[in-house]
Write a structure and sequence with these properties.
Helix content is 51%, strand content 12%. The chain has 275 residues and is α/β, with parallel strands linked by helices. The protein has a single domain, classed as 3-Layer(aba) Sandwich (Rossmann fold), CATH 3.40.50.300. α1 packs parallel to α9 and α9 packs across α11. This is Polyphosphate kinase-2-related domain-containing protein. GO terms for molecular function: polyphosphate kinase activity. Pfam families: PPK2. Keywords: Kinase, Transferase.
């Protein structure tokens, strides 16, 4: 079934007590997964896209909170510099790929070609229309080798986004996050949703899946990002004949009811139902 934002349930919430319990366990699972990637020389590429103020930064922060800082890099992606425009648009991302065994997190990514560049007219229709296949080939080239790719779209309702904008506007420690462009982009929300759905339809592949995350409740979104990341690493490990051994105490995981294996079990059920 093709993924579509209209099917995303934004009402999902997570109890604060359960959030803290799940978060701690999952963060240690992520540390364990990082060591697995390092020992097996497998690179991990995580892509974060989504609406403004959807919680990408917060999710990334919780994802890396307990991992070895020597093993990851976060790339905040903005408009290309003048000298970068002299190259193919993918060139600047090739230069940011992680070493095998390392993690690269892209806060915005090469999908800007089919999102902001499409909507703002920075790319011609021919350029952004052919970019879907260019991106698919780019990602397949990586995943056919020693890379794992997971792509997240964090989404919030129009009402929740407005609420967060106003909170940022009033908070001197967060006001730097809010720009005139953010306010202007709200008027183009329907166009961004249309472009995002086209993107999912054309670039959601088994080797590089899109995971849609309901972001109205930040606690739920942060936990889901961690769960899905670890579960996908586990799946890719199994494909390689490897196993992501968990160093945490098993009884503690069961007590917390938050192991990423929950996600794997749910995915297995869905696969069985579609056969």
């Amino acid at each position: 079934m093709t993924q579509n934002l209209k099917n995303l349930d934004l009402s999902i919430e997570l109890d604060k007590k359960m959030y803290k319990k799940k978060l701690k366990v999952l963060q240690y699972e992520m540390l364990n997964a990082q060591q697995f990637l390092l020992n097996n020389k497998i690179g991990l590429i995580l892509v974060f896209e989504g609406m403004d103020a959807a919680g990408k930064g917060g999710a990334i922060k919780r994802l890396i909170e307990r991992v070895d800082p020597r093993g990851y890099v976060v790339h905040p992606i903005s408009a290309p510099q003048p000298h970068e425009l002299r190259y193919n648009y993918l060139q600047r991302f090739w230069r940011k790929l992680p070493q095998h065994g390392q993690i690269a997190i892209f806060d915005r990514s090469w999908y800007g070609r089919v999102l902001v560049e499409r909507i703002e007219g920075f790319a011609t229709k021919d350029e952004w229309a052919r970019a879907y296949e260019e991106v698919n080939q780019f990602e397949k080239l990586l995943t056919d080798g020693d890379y794992i790719i997971v792509k997240f779209w964090l989404h919030v309702s129009d009402e929740e986004q407005l609420k967060r904008f106003k909170e940022r506007e009033q908070d001197p420690y967060k006001s730097w996050k809010l720009t005139d462009e953010d306010w202007r982009n709200r008027e183009k929300t329907p166009q961004y949703i249309e472009a995002a759905n086209d993107m999912f339809d054309k670039t959601d592949k088994k080797n590089a899946p899109w995971i849609l995350v309901a972001g109205n409740d930040k606690k739920h979104a942060r936990v889901q990002v961690l769960q899905e990341t670890i579960a996908h690493i586990e799946q890719e490990a199994q494909k390689r004949g490897l196993h992501l051994t968990n160093v945490l105490d098993k009884s503690y995981l069961e007590d917390a009811e938050s192991s990423s294996m929950e996600v794997l079990r749910e995915q297995s059920k869905k696969e069985e139902q579609t056969k």
